[in-house]
Amino acid sequence: MKKQIHALTGLFIALLFTLAAPLPASASVLSYDREELPGGGVLIVKESRQLPMVTIEVSLRAGTRYESPAKAGLADMTAGMLLRGTLRHSASDIEKLNDQLGGGAGVGAGRDFSTASLRVLSRDLEKGFSFLAEVLRKPVFPANEFKKMRRRTLGQLQRKEDRPGYLANRAFRERIFGSHPYGREVSGTAQTLGKIQRDDLAKFHRERYGMKGAIFVFVGDISLSRARELVLSHFKGWKAAGGPPPEIPPALKVKKLSVIKIDRPFKQTTVLLGNVSLTRKDKDFYAARVMNYILGGGGFDSRITSNIREEKGLVYSAYSYFAAGMDTGHWRLMLQTKNKSANEAISESIKEIRRMQEKGVTEKELAEAKAFITGNFATRFESSSRIAGYILAVERLGFPPDYAGRYLDKIRAVTKEQIQATAKKHIQLDESVLTVVGNMGEAKLKY
C-alpha cells in the first residue's frame, strides 16, 4: 500500500508524544498568510513556533478527472511511483532518505487533485524540501518498480473483493455518477490497469505536474519569507506541458429508486442508500450540514441511529453524510445489519428521512446540533497535519483566509425552515440508489 500522505510512520520516537499535544483550538488559529507565486502557484503559510516541526502539503491539478476513463488508475499510479525512483536516487535510496527525515513524505491521488506531503523537523527542512522537490520534479518511473506497483495494486484490488463496504461503494458510485470521474475507483480496475504502461505515467507527469495551479501549504516553525525562499529556489521555472483534460460528463441522473443487490455469503448485510446532491459551494451546504447531523450524522444523538440501533437494535452501525465535491456531490446513508434485519432497517431509515422532510426538526434539536457543530469545530484541528489539510481545502474551493469564522456564522444562522427545505431538496428518495451487499437468501430483500 502506498504511504499515506499524512503518515506518522518513522517519526522519531522521542517526538511522538510531543506531536500528539493539541495546538490552540479556535477559529483564529486557522488564520494564515497567502500570496501568489510566479508561474501561477499559491503559497500559504501558517506560522506556529510551538514545536520544531514543519508540515508541508503540495496540491496539484493531477487527480483522476485528468486521466482517460480507459486508463483509470493512471493518476493514482503516477503519484505512487514518484517515490520509486528519481534521476539521482533509486527506490531503496528514497526509502532510506525518507526514513532519515522521519518517514513523513508521501504522495497520493484523489478524484480532483494529487497531493504530496512532508513532515520534518525544523533542522531538516532544507534537506527535506529539496527531497520533496526532487520527487515531484525529477521522477524516472523505473520499469521494474512500475511492474511491482501494478502487481501490488492488482493484488489489493483482488483482496477488496471480500470487503462488503468496498463492493457497495463501488457499485453505488458507478450507478449514481455513471461515466463522471466521481463514479470510478481512484485505483482503477484490473482491466484499466492492464492498459497502463510506464510511458503513460511519464506523459501524465509531464502534462499535469507544474507550478500553474499548484498550492504550497506550510504549517509550523517557518516564516512566510523562508517558505517563499524555499519554493522559489526549488520550483522556479517548473512548468507542465498541459493540454486539454478529458471531457467531464455530467453525473448520471437516476430517475427512480434503483436497487443493486450483490449476493455474497456474508453473515451481515451492508446497505448504502443515497442520491446525487449538492456541491461544496452550494449555499444550502450549511443547512444540509446541520440537518444531516440531526438525521444520521450525529452519532447516537441522530434520529436514525437512535431509532434503529438504540431503540430497535437492528443495526451494528448507521451513519449518513453529504459528500459535497467540486463538480457535484451526493448524500449517503450507510447501514450494517444482520441479513434478516435488512428490510426493517431500511424501512425504518426511510421513515426517519420522510419524517424529516415532512415535519422538520424541533427548536431543541436545532439548537443542540448547532452548538455541537460549532463547539466541536476547533477540536478537529489539534495537529499541524489537520490544519494544513483544512487550509488546503479552503484554498482549493476558492474560499477566503477568514473562512473559518464565516463557516461558524453560517452554521449559527441556519433556521428550522432551511432545515426542512434542504431535506426535501437534497435528499431525493425517488432518485436514489439502494445498494445491498449480503446473503440475499437470508435477507429476502423486498426492494
CATH topology of the largest domain: Cytochrome Bc1 Complex, Chain A, domain 1
Class based on secondary structure composition and strand pairing? alpha+beta
Radius of gyration: 23 Å
The first-to-last residue Cα distance is: 37 Å
Biggest sheet: strands, sense, closure?
Answer: 6 strands, mixed
Report the mean per-residue pLDDT as an integer. 92
SSE string, helix = H, strand = E? HEEEHHEEHHHHHEHEEHHEEHHHHHEH
Ranges where pLDDT stays below 50 over 5 or more residues in a row are 1-25
Task: Using the 3D structure, state the CATH architecture of the largest domain.
Answer: 2-Layer Sandwich
CATH superfamily of the largest domain: Metalloenzyme, LuxS/M16 peptidase-like
**Shape field:** globular
Quaternary status: single chain
